[in-house]
Design a protein that fits this description.
Distance between the termini: 60 Å
Largest sheet: 5 strands, parallel
Shape: globular
Strand order of the largest sheet: 1-2-3-7-6
Helix content: 40-55%
Strand content: 5-15%
Bound molecules: thiamine diphosphate
Radius of gyration: 20 Å
């Protein structure tokens, strides 16, 4: 199928707006972290195309298993901005009530909260998919992770089980070239990450992770295959983290400005903008309007959420144990709330 048939003008424009909003959101959160209002943040700058295109290629009924770098996935799934802002600012609208800094999840949107330990969600997503398959739910699991995660046992255990049980799983590796300061060449001796799928008996594909059309086509094919009962696929999206690993990282210690500039010239948002211009869907004026209107909407939401109450300290004791153990009850009684 030709890309025009696969990706309508409307969908391409929608994805562009979602990518721009993800970029604006990440940059606003980094600023708020610097202002002492957000505890810590992991920006997805440069990687927006992967999560936005992947989520658009799936059904809203499919489940998302993100890491801490999937702002675009949450936006594409339709999570309201105020919920995402409340999460970062620790306000009452945060569905996680202040637990799990850096991560996001919300069952209302079929997003399962990411893991603290790298890769721990991979086998969980496979088990979840196996259960969905046995129940005949017809849903597909999109599981996101980085190149660093592929060195964890969880990755290999998850892929092995997915291959054996033909689970409806789309493994999406955001190969952003680094696991904090560890470059890809020190992460694996394999020629590609996608090649690892072969050992587990299913297909692995490499896509340009800065090209929305390529990602969309690959994820859509993998989702359709999984839904038909054809089992899992591993998609390796080659991309680059333009930002620091997190607000606690200084990337100038382990990579050159020149390398960053090379990747910046392949910014996925600029590439998508070019596609839209080619299709006569965008010009400078319209583009400026998209950026300014989304910036205004975001600023307004931040202002509104800042006025809402903070999560009460007592919430830290909630939603972990159905019956809190004695020592927690003791600690709770000591907390001045
Ligand atoms: C088991 C475990 N080891 C180490 C860490 C610390 N840590 C957090 S993120 C990260 C790098 C992960 O890299 P990658 O999987 O490539 O994802 P990226 O951050 O590049 O998106 C590490 C080592 C952790 N959270 N969990």
């Amino acid at each position: 199928m030709k890309t025009h048939e696969l990706l309508s003008d409307e969908l391409l424009l929608k994805m562009y707006r979602e990518m721009v909003l993800a970029r604006l959101f990440d940059s606003a959160m980094v600023k708020l972290q610097r202002a002492g209002k957000v505890a810590a943040y992991t920006s997805s700058e440069g990687q927006e195309a992967v999560s936005v295109a992947a989520v658009n290629a799936a059904s809203p009924l499919d489940w998302i298993f993100p890491t801490y770098r999937e702002t675009g996935a949450f936006i594409a799934r339709g999570v309201p901005l105020e919920t995402l802002v409340a999460r970062q600012l620790g306000r009452v609208g945060d569905p996680l009530k202040g637990h799990e800094v850096l991560l996001f999840g919300d069952r209302r949107y079929r997003i399962i909260t990411g893991p603290g330990p790298v890769a721990a969600h991979i086998p969980v997503s496979v088990g979840f998919g196996y259960a969905a398959k046995r129940r005949g739910e017809g849903t597909v699991m999109l599981v996101f992770f980085g190149d660093g995660a592929t060195s964890k046992g969880d990755f290999h255990e998850g892929l092995n089980m997915a291959g054996v049980f033909k689970t409806p799983t789309v493994f999406i590796c955001q190969n952003n070239q680094y696991a904090i300061s560890v470059p890809l060449r020190q992460q694996t001796a394999s020629e590609t990450i996608a090649a690892k799928a072969e050992a587990y008996g299913f297909e692995g594909v490499v896509v340009d992770g800065n090209n929305v059309e390529e990602i969309y086509a690959a994820v859509r094919a993998a989702v359709e295959k999984a839904r038909r009962g054809g089992g899992p696929t591993l998609i390796e999206a080659i991309t680059y983290r333009l930002a620091a690993h997190s607000t606690a990282d200084d990337p100038t210690k382990y990579r050159t400005a020149q390398e960053v500039e090379i990747w910046r010239s392949r910014d996925p948002i600029t590439l998508c903008e070019k596609l839209l211009i080619q299709r006569n869907l965008l010009d400078e004026e319209k583009d400026n309007l998209i950026w300014t209107s989304l910036r205004q909407i975001l600023e307004q939401k931040i202002e509104e959420v800042e006025k809402t109450p903070a999560i009460p300290h007592s919430a830290i004791f909630e939603d972990v144990y159905s019956t809190p153990p004695r020592h927690l009850k003791e600690e709770f009684s000591d907390v001045n709330i």
